[in-house]
């Protein structure tokens, strides 16, 4: 989905581009995913990893920043709660954006381009249909994941596929400079195919990475872990996180104590940036379930220059991306001849 509001300059620029491309169409008259695993691998076995998740850390990661994501307009009539990518937290290397979206027909995210990063869409409730200018089309439903590598260029749409309110999370993950111009690709998992585990009142859906000795089948170009935890009242969690990785929590439902026992609980729609340490400790002291996403990734430590839906390493590369989209070249050849249905 686009990272701009309907009133922003980039939205206006893209609207002009859309008009330009429609004119070009009138004048004209008329997956293979190659991902390879580069995730850091733990030297411990699956059984020891599962055990580690039950043992407190000598150096737990503490919450170093707390951001409440407020509702804002996005796309065409849609509403999102943006935490990463907002003014309080511009980015958290390698993460560029996190939106909790809430959309009802006819609102949505109509045709828009991307270059230089990946989008991970995780449906919490409802269904969304995605289609792009290469003919890829599909619907992701509650619990499904679409991991899209935009690479050198994609133009696509994301629109509600059911009545009522459709809810989910969309995460943008930056690509290293060497990967920014690769061919686009997809990894798509139905809910039933996502790895799951449960222990001592804590259930986890493992979108990427490993928890409780269970590993996700998803491969990540930028090393990433992504977990959806649900903790029952009275439970606690101690989840290892690779050393040196940046990490955050996004609370979906309920409230919990994060990082250090005895601190004040934090409630839904907060994004918590975690400091250095061995892993995350969480306690659910409330009388209701706590659900949150835990995401961590290996920093790229490269310059980030973003112009709306284009994320590159320099201003010159951004200008090139804009021109490529304008004129339909270097990955955007199909842009001027396509519109979603």
From TrEMBL:
Gene3D superfamilies: Jelly Rolls. Keywords: Iron, Metal-binding, Nucleus. InterPro entries: Pirin, Pirin_C_dom, Pirin_N_dom, RmlC-like_jellyroll, RmlC_Cupin_sf. The keyword NAD does not apply. GO terms for molecular function: metal ion binding. Residues 226-331 form the Pirin C-terminal domain. This is Pirin-like protein.
